[in-house]
Inverse folding.
């Protein structure tokens, strides 16, 4: 019962470095999401993938790219990390999205990313 | 643009009390309203999901209500226990994307 697995759990980067956060789900869900959580700002959607082969921008996409590698995996890439991207990143999945999405989202335990 | 607000930001109660957490949203055209629990250093765990056509959902000691016309949802916790201490977040789903409130951090004292 792994659910949603995120790697790594912790990472420290220097400004300008690049990095890919990995996410995999084993629930055969169609939709996957990346959020960031910041103090005082709550969780904000970065990108999402309604189904395999599609990706769309969320509320705060600037500075990030995503890849829906297959139905199980959805990665988030920081091409040139900035201190403003210091945050806790959560991946989530759900069976469907849109008006059909009356199933809850399942979250991973997060990646704590610090950019110096 | 949907905005979700949770008040208060923090709440401390003695064990055994019944309590209500509040969530308000600005756009009533939601698909559903979800309540989550987050423990320190952990991800979010789904507690209850209320579809737009429903008024309430119950799970054990938890009861969530939804009033779309007033843009409000409440999470009722009966007979609170120290193990209920956590941050509770509500999220409104418009177009399938969740908009989160900032959460209410609950402390239940033994």
């Amino acid at each position: 019962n792994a659910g949603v697995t995120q790697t790594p759990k912790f990472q420290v980067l220097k400004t300008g470095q690049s990095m890919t956060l990995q996410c995999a789900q084993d629930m055969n869900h169609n939709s996957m999401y990346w959020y960031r959580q910041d103090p005082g700002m709550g969780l904000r959607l970065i990108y999402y993938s309604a189904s395999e082969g599609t990706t769309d921008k969320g509320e705060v996409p600037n500075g990030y790219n995503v890849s829906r590698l297959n139905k199980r995996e959805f990665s988030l890439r920081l091409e040139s990390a900035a201190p403003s991207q210091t945050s806790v990143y959560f991946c989530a999945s759900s069976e469907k999205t849109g008006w059909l999405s009356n199933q809850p989202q399942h979250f991973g335990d997060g990646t704590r990313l610090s950019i110096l | 643009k949907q905005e979700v607000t949770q008040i208060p930001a923090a709440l401390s109660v003695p064990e055994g009390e019944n309590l209500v957490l509040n969530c308000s949203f600005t756009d009533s055209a939601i698909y559903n309203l979800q309540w989550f629990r987050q423990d320190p250093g952990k991800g979010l765990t789904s507690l209850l999901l209320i579809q737009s056509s429903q008024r309430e959902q119950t799970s054990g000691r938890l009861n969530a209500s939804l009033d779309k016309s007033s843009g409000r949802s409440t999470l009722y916790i009966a007979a609170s226990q120290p193990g209920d201490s956590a941050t509770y977040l509500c999220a409104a789903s418009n177009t399938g994307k969740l908009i989160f409130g900032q959460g209410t951090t609950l402390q239940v004292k033994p």
